[in-house]
Amino acid sequence: MIEALDLHKSFVTKTGVVKAARGVRFVAPDGMITGLLGPNGAGKTTTLRMLCTLMAPDEGRARVDGLDSVLQQHEVRKRLGVLPDARGLSKRLTARENIEYFGRLQGMSTPRIAARIETLSTALGMASILDRRTEGFSQGERTKTAIARSLVHDPKNVILDEPTNGLDVMTTRALRDFILDLKAQGRCVILSSHVMQEVAALCDQIVIISSGAVVASGSTQALTAQLGAATLEDAFVTAVRTASMPLGAAS
Amino acid sequence: MNALVTIIRKELTDLLRDRRTVMLSLVTGPLLTVLMVQGMGAVMSQRASGVEEPITVEAIGADQAPNLVAFMQSQNITLTASKGDPEQRVRDQEVDLVLRVAPDYATRWRASQPATVELVHDSSRTEAAVLAQRLAGVLRLYGQQVGAARLLARGVAPSVTNGVSISQHDLATPTSQANRALTFLPFMLMMIVFVGSIPSGVDNTAGERERQSLEPLLANPVSPSVVMSGKMLSTSLFTTLMLFVTLSLLEVGFQLSSSSASVTVATLGTIGLVLMPLVLVGAALISYLAGGAKSVKEAQSAAAGITMLPMSVMLLAMNPPKQALWVSATPLVSQSRLIEKLLRGEAPVAFEWLLMVAPTLAVAGGLWWLASRRYRDEAFIVST
After folding, report:
1. Which of B4, B8, B21, B220 to mutate: most A Cβ within 10 Å?
2. What is the pTM of this model?
3. DSSP string covering B122-148, please?
4. d(CA B286, CA B264)
5. ipTM for the whole predicted complex goes beyond 0.85
6. CA pair distance B289, B305, nearest whole angstrom
7. Is there a contact between B355 and B224 (Cβ–Cβ < 8 Å)?
């Protein structure tokens, strides 16, 4: 379970202070896929970074399985698998070596790493690329390797930042099945995406973030009903527009 | 500890698979260094022995001074008739030097007056300067002998003209004498230490960031200082490898070449040890500089500044400051002095080792701390 408890984060830039998150609040339960939606610059990536311990919130707390992301950073990292937006590989190492590297850093034993690589390789269909150097990998092969690398330690909680970005149809489908498998295994999955059909098809719960705060949340059905929209896309647009209007103008 | 070893192992594997860097750092670089050392040694020993070599010098009016010609011949200097205007020929660099016997030489000689011999040359040309020095020496010697003979003929002991007799008591040992050819060796080895750490240091910090693999790496349950230390140590190990490859090739070069300069395996090994603390400084410095760069390109420009450090040592070596304690404790200077000492065949005392190791390690530690701090800065980690 991943909890965002009133997360605040500001950055000082040349033009002034940017409030990237101003009170993000949601809970992603186990055995469910929670979709994180939001326009560019809404604060999604900042929120994900606070959840995966790469950033400490200015205010509020992020918790994974009840553990504090700042105070129990290493414990949280052991229970969390993250596919960040930045997903570069070491190109002179093979896919297997890239995965092994992270397994060792997670403190795993060699046989356990080997077993996990076997499992992940089967699930992601990457047997043919496992012992090739990653230089020259296609986008799909790179993403699969990066996902396997982030899940090598068999984490209970998984955060995927736009996992299907730039992938072809076949790879996207395979990846969706893989994500559904993660859910079926009882893991807590947070998925950020810009593809509405994907979110609608995969997610049990959707959290819409705009201007650094949650503006709507619930299942696809609940959101469309609540916002009087025909599709999730319409609901999303309505939620974001309403939130960006000046106070009082909504009525 | 495990994480540290994992990171070092991964970085070294990664680096050793980069064929271009390996070729450049472990083959081309060391070979060029050895060639330079051998070349400089050859130049130096040629200069030292150049004094005795038989040479031919153009002269004008030599027929007036048969005794001088004969004396010159006895000193391995053959005089031949000049083929034209001496000034012009020297200016045109056709000859290095022309000796001109003044037209009134014979007359003045017979009158026991100083007879003039002119050396026409361009002292800004190194070879000409060496030659002029040698000829001037021979001429002075000839003048003294002639003067002494004249005094004797007049019944005066020639020794009365010597107010002071100079005797040189040179303490140089054969080793120290021969290894003067290695004056630039400390500088070149320091160059290796600093330049050698650049490819690895840039690739595993700025390169990691450019490949977008820094963020996922730091999401592992490993402290940022450990990640930084692992990268720094792998850079140090690679530089050490490069250094010892160079030292081994140097030894091979000494064995094969005929130059008088030579250094024993033990001394070269000790020199390698002296450079170890500097290897850490180099690795920490590049990790700090490249770690703060936004791209590999930016990191490489920052790294170019690193080469200025050994340069500054060369300046200090050419213009040595007084033997103050702070100078002896300054990193780079202290190593350079210790290496010079080892090359002279002397054994440094424990205090000198301490002066060399402690301040340098302190500097390395400070740089390591600064570099680690960068990896703890969250804005730094995620900025691309």
Report:
1. B220
2. 0.81
3. -TTSHHHHHHHHHHHHHHHHHHHHHHH
4. 32
5. yes
6. 10
7. no
